[in-house]
Backbone:
């Protein structure tokens, strides 16, 4: 199985796209850090799961998709939603439970969805999006749309029965779906190494007769992007599904209620030194794609947009009580 | 064709309903174990592979979780799958997809998206299939907001309600009964014949006792009603729910007010069964004030379904027991 090399973008990527990916990474970081800040002050009404530290693993993968492609997301879905270009205002409003939120305040952090842009939704059930992903892929195949589906899940999902069933079905039907395992090493507190008996999950691909790919450094945006450009092309060409795994790390706890006793501060600090945003920033500067000032300006604008989203959310109305009794059935 | 009918079995009514809808809408397709060349484990898709091809009459691996998840994802993106669950007992493997995903998606997403899937479930006992292949699990699904649940009891109702279920933009749990696939009746041939979901039907009009039922037990209730009318002169009104969710409460309550006596019958286990919900609905409504006696229930006993045919029959409401309960209500016995 091919392993990715270090920070070597094989594709000629237009500068505009390179910088846009940087912006999205900044948005994810700034958004989640802001929410975390507000959680600590008791300003967020519900449960949240952060993507901080996993920015490259999310943005690099999703940036390789085309308009009209779809994703299914998991409970750590903030990063994927932002990478799918969700409106930050509406997403922040949703996390604050407001009427202007993406789900009118009925879904919250775990159910961020953006059907218009192809995000079939975060999912509160581990592995819950995998069936949906192959079904969405079946639609693309039967309607011959040329679109593909990326099914995002964490390492925690790989021992669910649905992993086996959906991967097999996708394989025998040659469905256009990328199964993307974002391995951040822990399912809440449980180290993945203690619950699988292979080194990495991608190695299981052979059981389904599909290619398994490995991105050893999921914090290296160009490496992630390169691999996904290759995989998107493979899947879109009608070759059937692939399983791909990237290694990354969540800086924060599983959720905001996680005290993090299962890992050492030293381990967390080591991973923080492998900050995907810093790494990508250095890459852009070293390859003369941007100056530090340009990138700092992108970050500053991103911070502004996040502050604006908070303002929007705070000023937005609460949902009406009647709305609790709406949207149960489609007409 | 408009008013034409034909005598056919429940099985053929199912095939006709699905085939008509698949001709009408190219987004409708059938998926499940053995639906293709085998024609369905109960013969409910015989001939469909030949007409529609293997893309739209889609055999699946034995993977209930993947089947249900795939159907939901396909439905969210524009297709309208019909899933042949085969034995309803196997739906246990589909529960996350139905309960946590299909039922809640639209609500969680603030009214965006829809999940038009029909899960066709071969329910009930009566074929010597024992405990893991004989259950009627409708009450699990009526408990979940966001799902529709239907259980028609005649070939014509099967056709009309299945067609409405396929056209519905929500997830519908459709119960068909293993013991009744061969049951015959007049079925309208008009391809536009449908029966709206949520509408009960008075299968018999009467003034002495109301019997509320649905699905498999309708046949026995009608036999019992006709026999007590003949032999004892008791006039029984039979309310056939056909749809459990949404529930036609008005039809139930109107009938109870009219007769003042009510018996509830289903083939699912008694405890936690759907007829308990109907009992509560009557008890908390103004129809309660019209009652001249207790609300009685007749359901399958709270034991797993046994294999031996005599034991199996013993745990299920029989025509004789239904008659006995009707007569008990009118103080004839």
Residues:
């Amino acid at each position: 199985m091919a392993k990715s090399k270090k920070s070597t973008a094989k594709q000629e990527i237009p500068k505009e796209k390179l910088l846009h990916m940087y912006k999205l990474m900044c948005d994810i970081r700034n958004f989640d850090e802001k929410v975390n800040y507000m959680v600590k002050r008791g300003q967020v009404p519900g449960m949240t799961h952060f993507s901080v530290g996993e920015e490259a693993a999310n943005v690099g993968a999703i940036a390789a998709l085309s308009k009209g492609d779809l994703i299914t997301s998991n409970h750590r879905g903030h990063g994927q939603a932002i990478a799918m270009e969700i409106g930050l205002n509406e997403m922040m409003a949703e996390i604050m439970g407001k009427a202007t939120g993406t789900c009118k305040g009925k879904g919250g952090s775990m159910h961020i969805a953006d059907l218009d842009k192809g995000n079939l939704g975060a999912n509160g059930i581990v592995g819950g999006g995998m069936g949906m992903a192959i079904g969405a892929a079946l639609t693309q195949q039967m309607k011959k749309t040329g679109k593909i589906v990326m099914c995002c899940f964490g390492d925690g999902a790989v021992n669910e029965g649905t992993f086996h069933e959906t991967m097999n079905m996708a394989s025998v039907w040659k469905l256009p779906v990328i199964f993307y395992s974002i391995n951040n090493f822990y399912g809440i507190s449980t180290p993945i190494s203690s619950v699988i008996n292979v080194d990495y999950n991608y190695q299981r691909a052979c059981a389904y007769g599909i290619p398994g790919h490995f991105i050893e450094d999921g914090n290296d945006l160009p490496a992630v992007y390169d691999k996904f450009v290759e995989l998107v092309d493979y899947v879109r060409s009608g070759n059937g599904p692939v399983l791909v795994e990237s290694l990354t790390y969540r800086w924060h706890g599983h959720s905001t209620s996680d005290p993090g006793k299962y890992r050492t501060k030293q381990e967390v600090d080591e991973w923080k030194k492998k900050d995907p945003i810093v790494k990508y920033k250095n890459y852009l500067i070293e390859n003369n794609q941007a100056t530090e000032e340009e990138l700092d300006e992108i970050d500053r604008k991103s911070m502004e947009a996040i502050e604006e989203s908070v303002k929007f959310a705070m000023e937005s109305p609460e949902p009406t009580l009647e709305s609790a009794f709406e949207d149960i059935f489609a007409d | 064709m408009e008013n034409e009918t034909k005598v056919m079995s429940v099985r053929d009514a199912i095939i006709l309903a699905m085939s008509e809808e698949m001709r009408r809408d190219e987004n409708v397709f059938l998926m499940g174990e053995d639906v293709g060349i085998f024609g369905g484990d109960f013969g409910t898709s015989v001939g469909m592979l030949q007409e529609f091809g293997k893309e739209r009459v889609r055999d699946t691996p034995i993977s209930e979780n993947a089947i249900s998840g795939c159907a939901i994802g396909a439905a969210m993106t524009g297709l309208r799958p019909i899933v042949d669950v085969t034995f309803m007992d196997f739906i246990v493997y589909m529960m996350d997809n139905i309960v946590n995903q299909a039922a809640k998606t639209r609500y969680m997403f603030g009214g965006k998206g829809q999940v038009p899937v029909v899960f066709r479930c071969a329910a009930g006992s009566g074929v010597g299939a024992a405990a893991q292949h004989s259950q009627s699990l409708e009450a699990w699904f009526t408990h979940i907001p966001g799902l529709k649940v239907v259980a028609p009891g005649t070939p014509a109702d099967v056709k009309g309600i299945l067609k409405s279920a396929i056209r519905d933009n929500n997830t519908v749990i459709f119960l068909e009964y293993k013991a009744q696939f061969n049951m015959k009746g007049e079925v309208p041939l008009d391809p536009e014949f449908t029966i709206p979901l949520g509408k009960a039907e008075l299968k018999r009009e009467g003034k002495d006792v109301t019997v509320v039922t649905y699905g498999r037990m309708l046949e026995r209730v009608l036999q019992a009603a006709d026999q007590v009318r003949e032999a004892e002169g008791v006039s029984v009104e039979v309310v056939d729910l056909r749809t459990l969710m949404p529930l036609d409460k008005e039809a139930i309550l109107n009938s109870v007010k009219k007769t003042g006596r009510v018996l509830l019958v289903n083939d699912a286990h008694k405890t936690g069964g759907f007829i308990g919900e109907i009992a509560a609905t009557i008890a908390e409504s103004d129809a309660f004030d019209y009652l001249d006696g207790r609300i009685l229930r007749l359901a399958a006993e709270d034991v797993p379904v046994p294999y031996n045919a005599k034991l199996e029959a013993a745990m299920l409401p029989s025509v004789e027991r239904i008659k006995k309960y009707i007569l008990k209500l009118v103080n004839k016995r």
The mean pLDDT of chain B is 97. Residues 13 and 159 of chain B are 5 Å apart (CA to CA). Chain B touches chain A through 42 residues (CB under 8 Å).
